[in-house]
Specification:
With 355 residues, the chain is an alpha/beta fold. It is built from 11 helices and 7 strands. The structure holds nicotinamide-adenine-dinucleotide.
C-alpha cells in the first residue's frame, strides 16, 4: 500500500515537472497570446485539450480553429494564492478545459423554452454561439433574459429562428444559412418534441402520425440537415437527440403509447446515425431524461395534480427533476469532454428505469 502510494506520488510529481517544462509549449494546439479582460496579457500557452488528445480525434479540416480556453481569471489566481475562497472557474486552461466551447456554433431545436432553452444557456456559458430553432412565433419571456445575459456578460450570442421541424426544406435552408454565415457548425441539441396523453384505443392515425412526424422524422431531418453542414465545413460535430426514459419503459399511470414509441425510435435512430456519420467524425448520442417539470409536464399536472408527488415516488430519489439538472449533460455531450462517446444513451432519471 505504502509503496503504491509513494510510487503514485513520484509519478504524479514527474508528470507535474514535465507539464511545467517549456519544451511542451510548441507542440500542437498553440494559441496566440492575447489580452484577457480579467488579467494581463499572457505568453503563448499550451492547449491542454489539443495536446492530450491524438490529432485524429480532434476537429480537422477547413473550419477555422476556435479560440482556446482562457487562463484562470484574476480572482481565481488570487484565490489560489490566498486559499480563502475556492478556485472554481471551470473551462479555463487548468479547470476541465475540454468543456470550453468558445466560438463553436451550436443549434438547439425546441430552444424557445423548457429543457431546450436551459440547455442553450449552458452552451452559452461554455462560450458557444447558439441558435434556438422553434416553431413558436415568439420564444418564452425567459429567452430574452438569456439573450441579454449572453450579450452582456458571457461575450457571446443567442439567436432565434422560427422553424417547424416537419418542414424539412425550410429546416435545411435555415441551418445551411447559419453554417454558411459562420463557416462552421459544431453541435446540435435536438430537443423539439411533443407529448399527447391518449389511450391507444382512442388514438387516431392522424395524431399518431403527427407525433412521429415531430418526434422522429423531425429529429432525424434536423440531425441530417446539421450533419450535412458539419460535413461541408469538415467539423467533427456532436449531435445530441433528446429521447426519454419513456423510450425504454412504459410509464406507470401515464397513457402515451405513441410518445413512448417515438422516443424508442429516437434511441434507435441515434445508433444508426452514429454508425453512418462516425466516418465524418460526427458523434451522435441521446439524452434520456426522467420527469422534468417544464411547460410540457405542467400541462399534464393541470388535470392530474397528484402526479407531482406520485411520479417522484416512482424513482430512487423520490422527486421529479428540474430542467437545470440537464445542463451538465448537455455541456458534456456537445463538448470535447465526450470525444470518445457515440451511439450511446445517457439516461438521467433519478433511477426510475433502474428499479
Ligand atoms: N418534460 C419532461 O418530463 C421530459 C422528459 C423526457 C424527455 N423530454 C423531452 O425533452 C424535450 C423538451 O421537452 P420540454 O419538456 O422542454 O417541452 P416543452 O413543450 O416545454 O418544449 C418543447 C419545445 O419544442 C417545440 N416544438 C414542438 N413541436 C415543434 C415543431 N414541430 N417544430 C419546432 N419546434 C417544436 C415547442 O414549441 C417547445 O418550445 C422533448 O423532446 C421532450 O419529449 C421531456
Amino acid at each position: 500500500m505504502v509503496m503504491l502510494k509513494s510510487s503514485a506520488m513520484r509519478s504524479a510529481s514527474r508528470m507535474a515537472t514535465q507539464a511545467a517544462k517549456p519544451s511542451l509549449a510548441p507542440r500542437v494546439g498553440m494559441v496566440q497570446a492575447r489580452h484577457n479582460s480579467n488579467g494581463p496579457a499572457k505568453s503563448p500557452r499550451y492547449n491542454a485539450v489539443s495536446a492530450q488528445y491524438p490529432v485524429e480525434t480532434r476537429k480537422q479540416g477547413m473550419a477555422a480553429e476556435t479560440r482556446g480556453p482562457p487562463q484562470p481569471p484574476q480572482k481565481e489566481s488570487l484565490n489560489l494564492e490566498t486559499g480563502k475562497e475556492a478556485p472554481t472557474f471551470l473551462g479555463t486552461t487548468k479547470r476541465l478545459p475540454e468543456f470550453n466551447m468558445a466560438d463553436k456554433v451550436v443549434l438547439v431545436s425546441g430552444g424557445a423554452r423548457g429543457l431546450g432553452l436551459v440547455q442553450a444557456e449552458a452552451m452559452l456559458e461554455a462560450g458557444a454561439i447558439v441558435y434556438a430553432l422553434d416553431r413558436l412565433p415568439e420564444p418564452s419571456p425567459y429567452f430574452q433574459v438569456v439573450q441579454q445575459r449572453a450579450a452582456e456578460t458571457l461575450g457571446t450570442q443567442l439567436h432565434y429562428r422560427q422553424i417547424d421541424v416537419r418542414d424539412a426544406a425550410n429546416l435545411e435552408k435555415v441551418i445551411a444559412d447559419i453554417a454558411d454565415q459562420h463557416q462552421r457548425l459544431d453541435g446540435l441539441i435536438a430537443a423539439a418534441g411533443i407529448q399527447q396523453e391518449t389511450p391507444a384505443l382512442e388514438y387516431t392515425a392522424e395524431d399518431a402520425n403527427n407525433m412521429f412526424a415531430v418526434n422522429i422524422t423531425g429529429a432525424m431531418m434536423t440531425a441530417s440537415a446539421a450533419a450535412r453542414q458539419m460535413i461541408k465545413y469538415e467539423c467533427a460535430g456532436s449531435i445530441v437527440m433528446i429521447a426519454s426514459m419513456s423510450g425504454t419503459i412504459a410509464n406507470r399511470g401515464l397513457i402515451c403509447s405513441a410518445y413512448n414509441a417515438s422516443k424508442a425510435g429516437v434511441l434507435q435512430l441515434c445508433r444508426n446515425l452514429a454508425a453512418e456519420w462516425g466516418a465524418h467524425k460526427i458523434r451522435v448520442n441521446t439524452l434520456s431524461p426522467g420527469y422534468i417539470v417544464t411547460d410540457m409536464v405542467e400541462k399534464l399536472f393541470e388535470t392530474h395534480p397528484e402526479r407531482r408527488i406520485e411520479w417522484g415516488n416512482q424513482n430512487m430519489l423520490g422527486r421529479v427533476s428540474a430542467p437545470a439538472e440537464y445542463r451538465g449533460a448537455a455541456a458534456f455531450l456537445i463538448s470535447e469532454a465526450s470525444s470518445y462517446m457515440t451511439g450511446a444513451d445517457l439516461r438521467i432519471d433519478g433511477g426510475h428505469a433502474a428499479w
